[in-house]
Predict the 3D structure of the following.
Amino acid sequence: MRKLSVTVLISIAILGGGCGHNKFHQGSMPDPGPYMIHFHELDADGDDALTRTEFKQRFPDATADVFEAVDLDGDDIIDHDEWHGFKEAHKNG
């Protein structure tokens, strides 16, 4: 199963290389489809800041690099603008 996951991630990275997603794809990232939910569904405490804990609660199989790819300013919090930007970058693919 691990080999299949790695193969899928590599394929996404190769195929997505020219899709304008490079801002969020510094390396191999999983299919963004399951991540296309509203910010308020992730922000469990309603403080307009998505912590790693809140992210992991909703996406338990996500690796740290997924969170880091969305957290563009590297402050260890995903804000609404970062989440919206991630979704916009992936809305067509």
Notes: Residues 2-89 form a domain with the Recoverin; domain 1 fold (CATH 1.10.238). The CA atoms of residues 68 and 75 lie 9 Å apart.
